[in-house]
Design brief:
Blueprint lengths: L19 H7 L17 E4 L5 E5 L5 E8 L12 H6 L11 H10 L3 E6 L3 E8 L9 H4 L6 H19 L2 H14 L15 H11 L5 E5 L3 H12 L18 E5 L5 E8 L3 H12 L4 E5 L2 E8 L2 H13 L7 H14 L4 H11 L3 H9 L10 E6 L6
Parallel strand pairs: 2-6, 7-11
Antiparallel strand pairs: 1-2, 3-5, 3-6, 4-5, 8-10, 8-11, 9-10
Helix pairs in contact: 9-11, 9-13, 11-13
Length: 389
């Protein structure tokens, strides 16, 4: 967590030297010596008749536009394992009247950079560009893909590469294991997001989830003008999809022994809200390990050369310092992370899309958190963990 430092400057005022206050009076355009936090500006929210929620903030030099579609791997049917991850890569592909190549050239000509994201709770896609192009490029998000065979094949190949990376990375494997331990390996929330989907299952999944009412967040734009452009780009028809229910937390265990140099252990607890998860993460970050949070979950991650010694340290922490949170300090750290973590247009847009509100309101939610409950956690162990626990 970054901490701001205030520097006190004193004018000398003797020996003919002039103090700083006199200089500022003579030269009023001199920049302030104490940096002020960036003003996010008024966050505005409008829900369109289609169900799409549009949330914007005006005060950024560049614009980031992000579309979050609820669903993710939680919306997969048993026959669609891995389809949600592949669907992520169908963003910015061939649509009616626009090929994949033309879409990417239009984005490139506007100087835009694109991004896509995948989580168990939803899919994210968007772009960062000069504010003058933010509305013009909305059709690259709103137009439905035509599922051209080459686009679907490419999407499946890219998701397969991610699966290969996971199988060789203890951290990525641990991340997958966290959900298996927390929700059960046979549940849709607990099974791996990596799979071998067929082209038809990817299309079936995206057709169903793509109709969910999502959140369109944008920074560096005028709200009224952007809402009008979004209404035109996305249309007025009501969304027909449904959002999957929140899965039930199960304090389970996941273990995968592997031939690697270190042991990796993650302990995860249920988080009743996004704000509570941020407070819990801040609490864990103040301890000997690294905290993390996701929708419905928060916990900490530990790594060490000796698995048994590491597990002993983890157990001591869970039964001691982790269970006795300094709520005031954790809230302060969580709020600092929110404010310092929204300095870029991209980070601000991500926060708007995830929380449906601006950083000031997220901080109010953090202030409203009553307690940090650290008990009944799930455990995931990967790597050098033979005989551990």
């Amino acid at each position: 967590v970054m901490l701001s430092k205030q520097i006190l400057l004193r004018g000398v005022g003797s020996g003919g030297r002039r103090c700083l206050s006199t200089v500022l009076e003579d030269f009023p355009s001199t920049p302030a010596t104490s940096p002020q936090p960036r003003t996010v500006g008024a966050v505005s929210v409008t829900k369109l008749p289609s169900g799409l929620t549009v949330i914007t903030s005006p005060n950024t030099a560049s614009s980031t536009v992000s579309l979050t579609i609820p669903g993710g791997s939680l919306a997969e049917l048993p026959s669609e394992s891995g389809a949600s991850l592949a669907a992520r890569f169908l963003a910015f592909t061939s649509a009616r009247g626009r090929s994949t190549l033309k879409t990417r050239r239009d984005l490139e000509d506007a100087g835009a950079t694109t991004f896509t994201g995948h989580a168990r709770e939803g899919l994210t896609m968007g772009y960062t560009c000069s504010p003058e192009y933010a509305e013009e490029l909305l059709t690259t998000l709103s137009q439905k893909t035509l599922y051209e065979p080459w686009d679907v094949s490419s999407a499946i190949s890219q998701s397969s590469l991610l699966g290969t990376s996971m199988s060789t990375s203890p951290l990525l494997t641990l991340q997958d294991g966290i959900y298996s331990a927390s929700y059960g390996p046979d549940t849709v929330a607990g099974r791996s997001v990596y799979g071998s989907p067929s082209p038809s299952s990817v299309q079936d999944y995206y057709e169903r989830v793509g109709s969910n009412a999502g959140v369109l967040s944008a920074t560096g734009v005028d709200h009224a003008s952007f809402v009008s452009a979004a209404s035109s780009a996305f249309g007025e028809s009501s969304a027909s999809g449904s959002t999957p229910p929140q899965p039930t937390f199960n304090a389970g265990d996941y273990r995968l022994s592997a031939d690697c140099a270190q042991a990796h252990i993650a302990v995860t607890f249920p988080a009743p809200s996004l704000a509570a998860g941020l407070v819990m993460k801040a609490h864990f970050d103040s301890g000997p390990f690294s905290g993390y949070s996701a929708a419905g979950l928060a916990g900490f991650y530990a790594v060490g050369d000796d698995g048994k010694e590491l597990w002993t340290s983890v157990q001591e922490y869970v039964s001691g310092a982790a269970a006795s949170a300094d709520l005031k300090a954790a809230k302060a750290a969580a709020k600092a992370a929110v404010m310092f973590g929204t300095e870029s247009s991209y980070d601000l847009a991500m926060l708007l899309g995830a929380h449906g509100k601006g950083p000031e309101d997220v901080c109010k939610d953090i202030d409203a958190v009553k307690d940090v409950v650290v008990k009944g956690g799930s455990v995931a162990k990967v790597g050098k963990v033979d005989g551990v626990g």
